[in-house]
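Record pair follows.
FIRST:
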Amino acid sequence: MAARNLFYAQSGGVTSVINATACAVIETARKHKNKINKVYAGRDGIIGALTEDLIDTSKDSRHAIAALRHTPGGAFGSCRYKLKGLDENKAQYERLIEVFAAHDIGYFLYNGGGDSMDTAHKVSQIGQRLGHPITCVGVPKTVDNDLPLTDCCPGFGSVAKYVAVSTREAALDVLSMSRTSTKVFVLEVMGRHAGWIAAAGGLAGEKAGDPPHIILFPEVPFDRAAFMKKVKATVEKYTYCVVVASEGVRGEDGRFLADAGTVDAFGHAQLGGVAPVVAQMVKDEHGYKYHYAVADYLQRSARHIASRVDVDQAYAVGKAAVELAVRGENAVMPIIRRTSDKPYRWKIDTAKLSKVANVEKKMPRSYITRDGFGITARCRRYLAPLIRGEDYPPYRDGLPKFVTLKNKAVPKKLKTPFEL
């Protein structure tokens, strides 16, 4: 069989290591010239396929592609754009197959989270029905760590490291002035429905009394009275209180504390910031001076402090995805399987996209302390290995040196444009 082209796209919120996965995809594909001709990337994710806006990665040198491994962001652009069901919008799928057929694309690798795995699964089913069989492989990525079956998600380990380090550093700052100034510090981290990132803040403390003193998880309904009591007791005992709060903290009525009343492109609630809400509650109740910080994009773009384990795993899933594709394994996703805690060991395994799509992995209750404000020893055993090791990017003039690709467009072959 003649070699065919491979289409790769990045989706959703990017991570500090998603380009390490892209690097692996391209480098591995270039070693399979008997099966893969060129790697085309979608400009701005799946939108690039729908609009026939493809990037020819063969125009970039081996050195430029290798530099992706230490470059944050999404090298080809990403998007929040969810394909509807086939019955709802058949035209979208027909357009995808039309573009794939026009450019002799036989492999589709979609690098993203749960919604992206759903898209990859749908496309894997529809190619045969629309006359252009295509091998679809989902490639895991999400800072939220909420994909099922895989031990962890590439992107999470580096966010976890950033949050743990930032919590420890900020706590020392607050402690320094706590007798006469700020007594409460709230760090807001990502995590709409799952508290994995917030839990990572717990790694900052090593013994009883170490910050963070309180962690607020989406999985535990916010009990204002219990929270205020804990804050007061902590300040009275240690002179200060450090709180790590997940953006998705909900009240006992099930509503987000920070619900902004709008939704994003995937239909998820837009959150307006839980840190100022919680901090103001403390001020109103106890009168303590506070400060808060919202980690926001900083936590997921901080390649300068990435976890070496995370970088290695991000590369490994990209490499495995290509190898699965050339073997003709359709509708699957490479996953990380932990084989040992001490020493930490892992390997790459495979899961069916049908078992991954639209399934959200939340924090087990056994990972959260009985009072709902901290992590257990079991949780620490799970998290600790994921932040280990450093993988610094090269520096020039005191700043990290990143790469910008040429991103040369593939000439269009279709006459009809597609309206999103």
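SECOND:
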Amino acid sequence: MSITQTFYNNLATQYDKLFLDWQAATREQAEILIKIFESNGFDHRARILDCACGIGTQSIGIAAQGYHVMASDISDGALAEAKKRAKENDVAICFKQADFCALSDVFAEKFDIIMAMDNALPHMLTSSDLEAAIKSIVNQMENNGLFVASIRDYDGILLEKPSYSPPYIHRTDKGQRVAFQTWEWAEENYKLTQYIVEDAETLHVSKFECEYRATRRDEMTGLLLLHGCSKVEWKFPDETGFYQPIVVARKE
């Protein structure tokens, strides 16, 4: 089992603690993504694949708006949590376990829109791994299809290579929750340690470890153009309201 699978398997039941209100976040992020879909000519008839669905943060919100969504992830723990939350939200989503570097091994059909949100692609720790992922994703898109993904603003982050990310502090009914990350750099890769501190009746600290590669926007743009996309544009938080830069790529 890879470090990425282990990370998300262990984090799955606590992933919603990274949000002040996960349920509200599903609705807010769905609104942002649907605006992107609609501005590119897609409506409720679009067939959508969320190929890094995690616990369903984006796919559940979009399905709740009447879109046809399939979802996949490499983590069986995240998929189990996503299935439970989809049922709680009364939405029908077909979930499958899949590595987005090999989508054709699992999916026979092609999709109008494929998503990979929340910094999923930087789990590819080498340029060749990233190329394999993008090639797999674009191959699974219909002609004139759309790829929508978000990554951290690594172009800015790499200028300083910070050792931690600012904490999120959320008030709860029983106290407060603090979530933060530490980063240990080795060239362009970094080991991430996610801490979740619950300060309620008793103090509880959870710790999860993973690894990322700081992926520059130009690299991703170049690979998308190389493997079949004719138009690639980046949208930034001040335009979309999403907390990370979003790439929108159109397949020829």
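COMMENT: The first strand starts at residue 47 and ends at 50.
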